Structure formats: C-alpha cells, structure tokens
Amino acid sequence: MRVKTVVRTAVWMLPPGSAKNSMLRRLGDDIHPTAILYPNLVRHVDKVSVGPRARIGLGNVIKQLRVLSLGAGATIGRYNLISAHPVYRRLLPEGARLRLDERAAITSRHTLDCAGAVTVREGAMIAGHSSTVLTHSIDLKRDAQTAYPVEIGPYSFVGAHCLLLGGARLPDHSVLAAGSVLPRSKGDPEPGLWAGVPASRRGDTNGAWFTRQTTGTRRVFVPSTGEVVEDAF
C-alpha cells in the first residue's frame, strides 16, 4: 500500500497526457481519457473521479480527502490548497469530500477546508483569488471540534477574498460579493446578491452569465469603447 501511494503521488506530478490518465486509472482512479491533469501534489485521497473535458491546473495541493470529484467540463485552476484533517476523514462518513458538478469551477489561489464536505453545483464558480472555505470549527457549547458541509448552488458566483463557514449555503443563481463572510445558513436562503460581514441579501441578480452553457467566459468587455470581444482568451 505504501509503495502504491508513492507511485500514485509520482504519477500525479507528471505532465498532462493520455499516458498519465491511463496510469492513474490502473492505480484505481476514475479518469476520463479527455481529462487534462497538470502536475499536482495529490496525497492520501481515497478516490479521484474526473469527467470528460474536466481540468485540474498546475500546482494544487490536494490531500486527506475521501473523494475528489469533477463532473464534465469542471475546472480547478492553479495553486489552490484543498484538504481535510485526517480526523474528519476518519470520523465523518460524508466528510472530507470535494465535488464539482458539470461546468463548475474553482479558479486560483483559494483555500478549501473540506472536512465537512464542499459541493460546487453545476455552472457555479469560486472566482477571483484568495477566498477561503472553512467547514470546521469549535462548538463552544460542547467544547468539541465539529464540521458542517458548504454548498454553492447552481450558477452562483463567489467573488474574491470571501469566507464561507461550515453550514453555509449560497442559493442558486446568486452572487457572494467580494470580501463577504457567509455564515451557517438558516432555513432556505433566497437567491440574490449576498454581501457584507455577515452577508445578507441585498438585491436581485440577473444577466447572461447565469444562463451560460460554458464553464467560464472567454469574452472581454472594453468599457472605454463598449465593445465585447469574443474568444479573447
């Protein structure tokens, strides 16, 4: 088992390609032939599932998870830290998991504590840089560590430098404004623009982004001219 762990870690550090995908399948992971997997440090992850055209960028650290799952077209960018403490991996049957549904995305330089499990639903995105998902905390009443899941609803958008705490749920077709703190949700939160510390609903959301059929957008709007440039990236 130790030898297999070392070999699997080494294979994850290889450049992307069909040979890497094939080797990972032989080692027990469910990797689609069209998935693109750049070199990453992946250790002590029980099961990895990466769907068609899904992508994991360069330089991520992913460790101590039960499950890492990316649906078709889902994307994890660069230099993210994705982890769970081994205690939660051992004690929480539904914990220590990261799931990205179809066309969901996490951009770059974020920190995700997946002890209580993190789910990013279809078409949703953790965007910008330096947001933190922190699913575990101390239950002061019980004097005990605990963890609760975090869910980002379909086609929702998390801005830069946000903090999402255990038990938080961002509703579908919603925006969490940059710099906001989303605490544990009460009841069934209403979709819309959520902002502030702690975040509260500030208004409605609308726009073409919420009905797109791609993972991200390759268009660029130029404010000085009003022009929208297609396929700019």
Number of domains: 1
CATH first level: Mainly Beta
Which fold does the CATH topology refer to?
A: UDP N-Acetylglucosamine Acyltransferase, domain 1
Largest sheet: 12 strands, parallel
Mean pLDDT: 95
**Large-scale geometry:** flat
Look at the helices and sheets and give the structural class.
Answer: mainly beta
The radius of gyration is 18 Å
Low-confidence stretches: none
How far is the first residue's CA from the last residue's CA? Answer: 43 Å
Query: What is the β-strand count?
Result: 25
Order of helices and strands: HHEEEEEEEHEEEEEEEEEEEEEEEEEE
Q: How large is the share of residues in beta strands?
A: 35-45%
Share of helix, binned: 10-25%
Count up the helices.
3
Which architecture does the CATH hierarchy give at level 2? 3 Solenoid
CATH superfamily: Hexapeptide repeat proteins
Topology summary:
Blueprint: H1 2-12, H2 18-26, E1 30-31, E2 36-37, E3 41-50, E4 55-56, E5 61-70, E6 75-76, E7 81-83, H3 86-91, E8 97-100, E9 105-106, E10 111-113, E11 118-120, E12 125-126, E13 132-134, E14 136-139, E15 144-147, E16 150-152, E17 157-158, E18 163-165, E19 169-170, E20 175-176, E21 181-182, E22 193-196, E23 199-203, E24 220-222, E25 227-229
Parallel strand pairs: 1-3, 2-4, 3-5, 4-6, 5-7, 5-8, 6-9, 7-10, 8-11, 9-12, 10-13, 11-16, 12-17, 13-18, 16-19, 17-20, 18-21, 20-22
Antiparallel strand pairs: 14-15, 22-23, 24-25
Describe this structure in words.
The protein has about 230 residues and is mostly beta strands. The protein has a single domain, classed as UDP N-Acetylglucosamine Acyltransferase, domain 1. Helices cover about 10% and strands about 35% of the residues. The chain has three helices and 25 strands. The strands form four sheets. Strands 1, 3, 5, 7, 8, 10, 11, 13, 16, 18, 19 and 21 form a twelve-stranded parallel β-sheet that branches. Strands 2-4-6-9-12-17-20-22-23 form a nine-stranded mixed β-sheet, with no helix packed on it. A hairpin with a 4-residue loop joins strand 24 (about 220) and strand 25 (about 225-230). The longest helix has 11 residues, at about 1-10. The radius of gyration is 18 Å and the shape is flat.
